[in-house]
Design goal:
Elements lengths: L7 E5 L3 H13 L5 E4 L35 E5 L1 H13 L4 E5 L11 E4 L3 E2 L6 E3 L9 H16 L5 E5 L11 H18 L2 E5 L6 H10 L4 E4 L10 H7 L2 E5 L3 H9 L4 E4 L5 H10 L2 H14 L5 E2 L1 H10 L4 E2 L15 H13 L1 H4 L2
Parallel strand pairs: 1-2, 1-3, 3-4, 4-5, 5-7, 8-9, 8-11, 9-10, 11-12, 12-14
Antiparallel strand pairs: 6-13
Helix pairs in contact: 1-11, 3-6, 4-5
């Protein structure tokens, strides 16, 4: 590394949300960097590998090579690429790692962990908490897609009420009972505002949920079912043209992008599955089991938790959303820009590495 040009690697994968956030961090430094795209083996495209210092979960035949000269700094996001970043650091112990999100374990091995509010990461010197996640809406693409879809949307009864549907993710469930509760809320909102309900599913939406939406959704309404590589996905056009939004609370990216567009947003929280119910009960004993919990985190027996309810409350308390069942509000402020403080912290890490070691 020279004083003016550290060797920086931006390590990306197959998750668009993680990639976008990591790229924002790399761009905010105002320094050149090399992008390394690492793709998972098929068995780990959706499944989660055991967290260890390894590249075995990656398909290196489809990925960019990882060879010397080793970087001074790695910027990445997510579980799979945290493992790869630790592997890079094992080849070159002076490499610094900036991780967006929550590590499964070994938080002390990361030089900077940038965490949005939904991640339950302990307060440590190498942790930089954020008030909201970093993803933002791509305004240029929204404008382009809005024009592309405008004629089709013009024929719909106004207002258009977009219903953005995610899917189950630990510790939440999304079954027929939950989707019927969602449909009840949608019907009430449609009765209040009129217009057309426009349902748009996503990669994680279960087939049973889609079938229930197809059969039981209120009318008038439209249902778009997500398919891989679909060039006619209305999601971005909805961000530009829909007047109101109902978003299932499992999808961080959809909630944040709607908020970034300053559109009236209602969050429909998914109910807890049995894991979530057990986790909530265990939180009553946090103080008693804190020391035990810290040891379990270090071993990787349990990972750092995630509480999407914390993010919901943050969006509601700052005027960007309401809980489903409450009257919509019109956001008036912009999402906070925290890139300046992130950039300053990383530049300090590069400039004075000894001072920032954990």
């Amino acid at each position: 590394m020279t004083a003016s040009s550290p060797n920086i690697w931006l390590v990306l994968g197959d998750k668009l949300g993680d990639n976008a956030q990591a790229a924002k961090v790399a761009d905010c430094l105002g320094m050149p960097y090399t992008t390394k795209r690492l793709l998972p083996r098929q068995k780990y495209a959706l499944g989660k590998p055991f967290f260890r210092i390894s590249l075995e979960h990656l398909d290196m035949n489809r990925s960019d090579p990882l060879n010397p000269p080793w970087p001074d700094l790695v910027i990445t996001a997510g579980r799979r690429h945290a493992m790869a970043a630790l592997w890079i650091k094992a080849q070159n112990p002076t490499t610094k790692i900036v991780l967006l999100g929550r590590p499964r374990r070994w938080i002390e091995k990361f030089d900077l962990v940038i965490t949005p509010p939904q991640h339950q990461v302990p307060d440590q010197p190498n942790v930089l908490p954020l008030s909201l996640p970093l993803m933002r809406a791509d305004k240029e693409r929204i404008s382009q897609q809005s024009e592309h879809w405008r004629n089709r949307f013009d024929s719909l009864k106004k207002p258009i009420i977009a219903v953005l549907v995610g899917g189950p993710t630990r510790p939440y469930r999304f079954d027929k009972k939950a989707v019927r509760e969602l449909l009840t809320q949608c019907k009430l909102i449609q009765e209040c505002h009129g217009g057309t309900l426009y349902f748009s599913t996503s990669r994680r939406t279960p087939a049973a949920v889609i079938a229930t939406l197809d059969k039981e959704r209120p009318q008038p309404s439209v249902l778009h079912e997500w398919t891989p590589g679909d060039p006619e996905n209305p999601y971005l056009a909805l961000l530009g043209l829909a007047e109101y939004f109902i978003v299932t609370g499992d999808s961080v990216s959809m909630m944040i992008e709607v908020a970034d567009c300053k559109k009236p947003l209602a969050i429909f929280p998914l109910p807890n599955g049995w894991r979530g119910t057990l986790w909530q009960r265990c939180r009553l004993f946090d103080k008693i089991y804190q020391r035990l919990g810290n040891q379990l985190y270090k071993t990787g027996i349990v990972g750092f938790g995630r509480d999407l309810g914390t993010l919901h409350k943050m969006l509601i308390n700052t005027g960007f959303a309401v809980a489903a069942g409450n009257a919509f509000i019109q956001p008036t402020q912009s999402l906070p820009d925290e890139l300046e403080k992130i950039g300053a912290r990383i530049r300090l890490l590069i400039k004075n590495p000894a001072e920032c070691d954990t």
